[in-house]
Every structure is written in structure tokens, then in C-alpha cells.
Amino acid sequence: MKNNFVLLDLIFYVVFPLAIWNLTRDDIGDYYAMLLSSVPGIIYTIFRFIALKKVNVFGLYIIATLVAGTLVDVLSGNAIRLLWNNVIYSYVVAGTFLFTIIIKKPIALYFGLDFVELQGHDRTFSKRLFYQKKIYRIFAWIVVGFALQDIILATLKAWLISAYGVEAFDKGIIIRQVINWGLTFIIMGGFFYIGKVINESPELMEKVKRELEEEELSS
User: Fold this and answer.
1) What's the pLDDT tens digit per position in 22-57?
2) What pLDDT does 211 receive?
3) Which one, of 176, 185, 161, 165, lies nearest residue 90 by Cα?
4) What integer pLDDT is reported at residue 100 of this predicted model?
5) Where are the transmembrane segments (predicted)?
């Protein structure tokens, strides 16, 4: 799954939803076709969560967004309201991302901790390292990237809905995936840059190691 995530994303988040939408909307109506088209993505997301083999911040984020997004869709009641509710939901998610920066717990940092822990690194040491100012700032900017992703998507969706009404649904699916892929690669570049900064800054590693040793001795 890891090696084919782009192809699988395309199939479950674009191909299947578009096919279901276009094949079923005349028979069951726009709203129920929208709900049905989300099922492949929900199933795929659950499998991605299971593939993590560990309940961590990233896994909880996947499940939380899945549950919240599904509730937004199911409780909308009709097609046009579903589309507008998803616009609002995207803005709320963006605001939540930015809030994690305000409270000095940028969610990207915790995603990073999950990743390095899966690689066998000590979470306590990594957390102290990631909170070093030089690295922390990069994580904060990555979170801004997360928020920007949702803001751009929501704004484009709002424009599409205003221009095309319910017909904006299939266009939104394609645009969502294009934006997600584009910004995801940029965001991943940020994570790789953090790794580069760490490798080029052995003094940070020594500083964190020294701080933890001093805390252990004083406790």
C-alpha cells in the first residue's frame, strides 16, 4: 500500500466516487449518490488506519476526520447543503490546524513524532529535539501548509457551488485531489528538510541529550 499510495488515492478518492456519482444519481438522487460515492474513500481510509498497526496521533487524526466528515455528510439532509457544509468543515479544519500552532502544539510535530517512533527512535528524545526553535519553526510552517490546503480547497469549492450548484460535486472531487497531491508533496519536502537540518546540526542532538541527562540526574 505504501508504494502505491498515489494510485490507490486516485482509485478510491477519485475514480470510484466519480463512477458511483455518475452511475447512481439518476436512480437514487443527488444527495444519496453523494453519500454512496464517499463509501470507497471511507473503506480505504479505515484500511490505512489499520495498516498503521498502532494507535498514535496520526491514526487518531485519520479516524477523527473520517468520523467528522461522515457525520457532516449524513446530517446534511440534501445535496446542496452537503456541499456547503463541506466548505464550512474545511474552514473549521484549517482553523483547528492553526490553533495547534497558537497553543504551541503544532500537529505536524506530533505526526513527525509518530513517524520517528515507528522508525525505532525514542519519542521523548525526539520530542525535545523537535521543540528546539530551529526545528520547531519548520513544523509550524508545515502546519500552515496543512491549513492553506484546506482554505484553498474550501474557497474553490465555494466558487464552484456558486457557479454550478450540485454539478460542482464531481469537479470538486478532482480539484480536491489535485490540491491534496500538490501541497502534500510540498509538505513532505518540509519534513525532509527537517531531517536535513537535524543531520547538519549535531550540536542540537548533543544539547538535547545533555538536557535529558541533567534532568534524569536531578530527579
Assistant:
1) 888 888 888 888 889 889 888 888 887 777 666 688
2) 87
3) 176
4) 97
5) 7-25, 31-51, 58-76, 82-103, 138-161, 173-195
CA gap 34, 166 in Å, rounded: 10
- pTM score, whole prediction: 0.83
* Whole-Å CA distances, 96 to 37, 165, 187: 26, 28, 17
C-alpha–C-alpha distance, residues 162 and 141, integer Å: 31
Cα(30)–Cα(28) distance, integer angstroms: 7
Shortest CA distance to 146 belongs to which of 105, 123, 104, 179? Answer: 179
Asked if residue 61 lies in contact with residue 107, where contact means CB atoms within 8 angstroms, the answer is yes
Task: Mark the ranges of the chain whose per-residue pLDDT is less than 50.
Answer: 2
Q: Are 87 and 144 in contact (CB under 8 A)?
A: no
Cell 531531517 appears where?
Answer: 195
